[in-house]
Design goal:
Blueprint (H helix, E strand, L loop, with lengths): L1 E2 L1 H11 L3 E5 L2 H14 L4 E5 L1 H4 L3 H13 L6 E8 L2 H9 L4 E4 L6 H15 L5 E6 L4 E2 L6 E2 L6 H11 L3 E4 L16 H10 L4 E3 L7 H9 L2 E6 L1 H17 L7 H22 L9
Parallel strand pairs: 1-4, 2-3, 2-11, 3-4, 4-5, 5-6, 6-9, 9-10, 10-11
Antiparallel strand pairs: 7-8
Helix pairs in contact: 2-4, 2-11, 5-6, 7-8, 10-11
């Protein structure tokens, strides 16, 4: 069933677990994620990034998720990830997204507040929840060609940001990065504790792929309520693709033969994340 970020994160904050948030596209990923989370009775957030939404992507992905979410008993959020322009937010609203993230993290604080507040004013009348980012989670872009440095979130800016924007969730920077890590990260749990104490809304961790499991769980125990995951699913898909290609023995293989190992790889990766975040069994279904 479709729901919003606001509704799905409130119990996570109260009961000290995190909801897994998976960037996805197309049927294989969506089906693998939803069926695995349903089996584990876990709430889930399906996210979409700009490259998957270009052309007809925003129509295909949004209508696929909206169409199948009602088949499942677990709570499902359809979330726009890392929008930087209001036009994309408007398009997501028109296509029935239930949640959006506006990313003004590389702007000066006052400009980030203005952009985020404008997004809230667009989304709130439609019942759509809004996530923003304070500080900046760096790392590689999706094409693995451009890297940006992380800027840790300043606890002293949190209360002002939340009060002036009225966001529903806040992504914070505590030492993770996007993409595949080049070296082992060390999360600042002490800073996270300060951020959690300063924030009246649930906190979000971006760059969840590849982060050491003990550090992820420490973050969840200290206030993180949503963890974004993408690279680990892509790695699982690539391994499944190699397995599938090596096993094919006919010129005209069935789709289940081609895509089966890929789907199974995603299912395993999703199940690992659900359990890691203490999310299994949290859906009332």
């Amino acid at each position: 069933m479709l729901t919003t970020l606001r509704e799905i994160l409130a119990p996570a904050r109260r009961e000290h677990y995190a909801v897994p948030a998976f960037d996805c596209s197309e049927d294989v990923m969506v089906r693998a994620i939803l069926e695995t989370c349903e089996e584990l009775r876990a709430p889930v957030i399906l996210m979409c990034l700009l490259p998957e939404l270009e052309g007809n992507g925003i129509v295909y992905v949004s209508r696929l998720v909206r169409g199948v979410a009602e088949h499942h008993k677990i709570p499902v959020v359809l979330h726009l990830d890392h929008a930087t322009e209001l036009d994309l937010v408007k398009a997501a609203i028109d296509q029935g997204f239930t949640s959006v993230m506006i990313d003004g993290s590389q702007l000066p604080l006052a400009e980030n507040i203005r952009l985020t507040r404008a997004t809230v004013e667009l989304a709130r009348p439609h019942g759509i929840s809004v996530e923003a980012e304070l500080g900046h989670v760096g790392g590689m872009d999706l094409e693995a060609t451009v890297s940006s440095e992380s800027v840790l979130t300043d606890p002293g800016e949190v209360a002002r940001f939340v009060d002036e924007t009225d966001v529903d969730a806040l992504a914070v920077s505590i030492g993770t990065s996007h993409g595949v890590y080049r070296s082992r990260p060390t999360l600042s749990i002490e800073r996270l504790q300060e951020l959690h104490a300063a924030s009246r809304v649930p906190l979000v961790l971006h760059g969840g792929s590849g982060t050491p499991e003990d550090q992820v769980q420490a973050a969840v125990c200290n206030g993180i309520c949503k963890v974004n995951i993408y690279a680990d699913c892509r790695i699982a898909m690539a391994r499944g693709l190699h397995e599938s290609a090596a096993a094919l023995r006919r010129e005209d293989p069935l789709p289940t033969e081609m895509f089966g190992p890929i789907k199974q790889g995603v299912c395993r990766a999703v199940a690992e994340k659900v359990r890691l975040l203490y999310a299994a069994g949290r859906a009332a279904c």
